[in-house]
Amino acid sequence: MAKVDHKVVLIVIDGWGIPSETSPPKGDAIAAADTPVMDEFAKEGSKTAQGYTELEASSLAVGLPEGLMGNSEVGHLNIGAGRVVWQDSVRIGQTIKKGELKKVPNVEKCFQRAIDGNGRLHFLGLVSDGGVHSHIDHLVALLKVAKAMKVPKIFIHFFGDGRDTDPKSAAGYLQDLLDRTKELGVGELATIVGRYYIMDRDKRWDRVEIGMKGVVLGEGEDSTDPVATIKERYEKGENDEFLKPIIVGGEERRIQNGDTLFFFNYRSDRVREITQLLGDYDRSPKSDFPYPKDIEITTMTQYKPDYKFPIAFPPQHMGNVLAEWLGKKGVKQCHVAETEKYAHVTFFFNGGIEKQFEGEEREMIPSPKVATYDLDPPMSAQKVADKLSERISDKKFEFLMNNFAPPDMVGHTGVYEAAIKGVTATDAAIGTVYETCKKEGYILFVTADHGNAEEMLNEEGKPKTSHTTNKVPLVMANAPEGWSLKNQDGVLGDVAPTILAAMGLDQPEEMGGTSLLIKKRKASTLNPEAKE
């Protein structure tokens, strides 16, 4: 076994939040359940826990947009990564907010290439505030940078939304964009085309060709008043998603030889095909198309790992997540969950990659085969606890972790009484693991990925099935006497650094989280050779 100061077990409860002042007064399935183990952990002066604190598990604290509730994938990603894992949209938004977009290397290089070349820069992307694939504010911010850099000619190719927004909202977004370009004094509208034709992802190349013919060849309906043209299309039964190309400004505003292109969608799946063709990655689906020569494409994010386009916001480096770092240190580890949450303790906990690290073993317990989990609220929590306890008792692993699913999966059904049963079963399962940790000499950490079961009813008293923005607990039990946890400003990304500190292992540079562990004890207690 690897040399660690202490062996550790981590329990991640799915959907176990702490009610806030704004939580509805009724519908807390956790408070209503029989939870003696977690209740004792949370008590001041607890007889079983040496540390108890609350962690932020939503919004910017876990890399999500402000005010957005956490989820299981993001929660496990942050816990396992030991850092805030920023969503692309948030990274871009925060960069803009700080006024640093002009400092992004591949934004500057792209615009400079246009200036040094033929002076022509094209922006292409979905124009709305739907926030799923792109955001109109990002386009406006890019226009401001291009203006500051004095790019001579700037053209905008407007992809209509209508799926993540109202189906007939493009006229409003276009008017907003035209008002902003007028105010800025830069940016000329070139093309309008619905996402159906330019943002396909199902290899329907004929659709993409219709979009390309618009932006490159100018094939479509010529218009000098595009807002009015869109409204006329509405009258004919066409909506934003299905807008056939509307051409503004004629040949001058088409993509021509030597031009520079910037695709500003941040979600990748629906701009892979158009960039594959225009960027000459693989033109075989439409090899006869008269593509412009010597164009350069820059993309907002990575659209595909094997595309070689410059990227403004490359993927966040997820090196040395907890599981990888422990593997490098020779620490043997085991991850356990039932089927419903198996991906969360493997793929997501390991940094969003399907990789089993050195010394890592996995155990999957089948979830009950029922239509909905209110029909079997305990799910397989006890079986997971029993398997985890068995693996702890093997004395083979220095680190083990698991997920307990019922508070979240039963919480999603909206059936309050069932959620109470699921929470009760989860607490009993935690008790099983705690007793094994005591017997085998493991420190136990218990946290959750996000809230859910603590708010089963909304303000109107109707069933609530969604996650919450509430904080979650972080418990440390069976730790050396005198140890405790800092009780302020903690986030899920602090869990892994705290575990490493408890094990006496150094924290890798990539982990931006902070250890919440406070070690105050006499050198003679427990392990006199342990690092302070």
Automatic annotation (TrEMBL):
<dbReference type="InterPro" id="IPR011258">
    <property type="entry name" value="BPG-indep_PGM_N"/>
</dbReference>
<dbReference type="Pfam" id="PF06415">
    <property type="entry name" value="iPGM_N"/>
</dbReference>
<feature type="binding site">
    <location>
        <position position="412"/>
    </location>
    <ligand>
        <name>Mn(2+) 1</name>
    </ligand>
</feature>
<feature type="binding site">
    <location>
        <position position="341"/>
    </location>
    <ligand>
        <name>substrate</name>
    </ligand>
</feature>
<feature type="binding site">
    <location>
        <position position="450"/>
    </location>
    <ligand>
        <name>Mn(2+) 2</name>
    </ligand>
</feature>
<dbReference type="InterPro" id="IPR017850">
    <property type="entry name" value="Alkaline_phosphatase_core_sf"/>
</dbReference>
<dbReference type="GO" id="GO:0030145">
    <property type="term" value="F:manganese ion binding"/>
</dbReference>
<comment type="similarity">
    <text>Belongs to the BPG-independent phosphoglycerate mutase family.</text>
</comment>
<feature type="binding site">
    <location>
        <position position="408"/>
    </location>
    <ligand>
        <name>Mn(2+) 1</name>
    </ligand>
</feature>
<feature type="binding site">
    <location>
        <position position="449"/>
    </location>
    <ligand>
        <name>Mn(2+) 2</name>
    </ligand>
</feature>
<dbReference type="InterPro" id="IPR006124">
    <property type="entry name" value="Metalloenzyme"/>
</dbReference>
<feature type="binding site">
    <location>
        <begin position="267"/>
        <end position="270"/>
    </location>
    <ligand>
        <name>substrate</name>
    </ligand>
</feature>
<dbReference type="GO" id="GO:0006096">
    <property type="term" value="P:glycolytic process"/>
</dbReference>
<feature type="binding site">
    <location>
        <position position="72"/>
    </location>
    <ligand>
        <name>Mn(2+) 2</name>
    </ligand>
</feature>
<dbReference type="GO" id="GO:0005737">
    <property type="term" value="C:cytoplasm"/>
</dbReference>
<comment type="function">
    <text>Catalyzes the interconversion of 2-phosphoglycerate and 3-phosphoglycerate.</text>
</comment>
<feature type="active site" description="Phosphoserine intermediate">
    <location>
        <position position="72"/>
    </location>
</feature>
<dbReference type="InterPro" id="IPR036646">
    <property type="entry name" value="PGAM_B_sf"/>
</dbReference>
<comment type="pathway">
    <text>Carbohydrate degradation; glycolysis; pyruvate from D-glyceraldehyde 3-phosphate: step 3/5.</text>
</comment>
<feature type="binding site">
    <location>
        <position position="14"/>
    </location>
    <ligand>
        <name>Mn(2+) 2</name>
    </ligand>
</feature>
<feature type="binding site">
    <location>
        <position position="195"/>
    </location>
    <ligand>
        <name>substrate</name>
    </ligand>
</feature>
<dbReference type="GO" id="GO:0006007">
    <property type="term" value="P:glucose catabolic process"/>
</dbReference>
<dbReference type="InterPro" id="IPR005995">
    <property type="entry name" value="Pgm_bpd_ind"/>
</dbReference>
<feature type="binding site">
    <location>
        <position position="467"/>
    </location>
    <ligand>
        <name>Mn(2+) 1</name>
    </ligand>
</feature>
<feature type="domain" description="BPG-independent PGAM N-terminal">
    <location>
        <begin position="92"/>
        <end position="304"/>
    </location>
</feature>
<feature type="binding site">
    <location>
        <begin position="163"/>
        <end position="164"/>
    </location>
    <ligand>
        <name>substrate</name>
    </ligand>
</feature>
<dbReference type="Pfam" id="PF01676">
    <property type="entry name" value="Metalloenzyme"/>
</dbReference>
<keyword id="KW-0479">Metal-binding</keyword>
<keyword id="KW-0464">Manganese</keyword>
<feature type="binding site">
    <location>
        <position position="201"/>
    </location>
    <ligand>
        <name>substrate</name>
    </ligand>
</feature>
<keyword id="KW-0324">Glycolysis</keyword>
<keyword id="KW-0413">Isomerase</keyword>
<feature type="binding site">
    <location>
        <position position="133"/>
    </location>
    <ligand>
        <name>substrate</name>
    </ligand>
</feature>
<dbReference type="GO" id="GO:0004619">
    <property type="term" value="F:phosphoglycerate mutase activity"/>
</dbReference>
<protein>
    <recommendedName>
        <fullName>2,3-bisphosphoglycerate-independent phosphoglycerate mutase</fullName>
        <ecNumber>5.4.2.12</ecNumber>
    </recommendedName>
</protein>
<feature type="domain" description="Metalloenzyme">
    <location>
        <begin position="7"/>
        <end position="506"/>
    </location>
</feature>
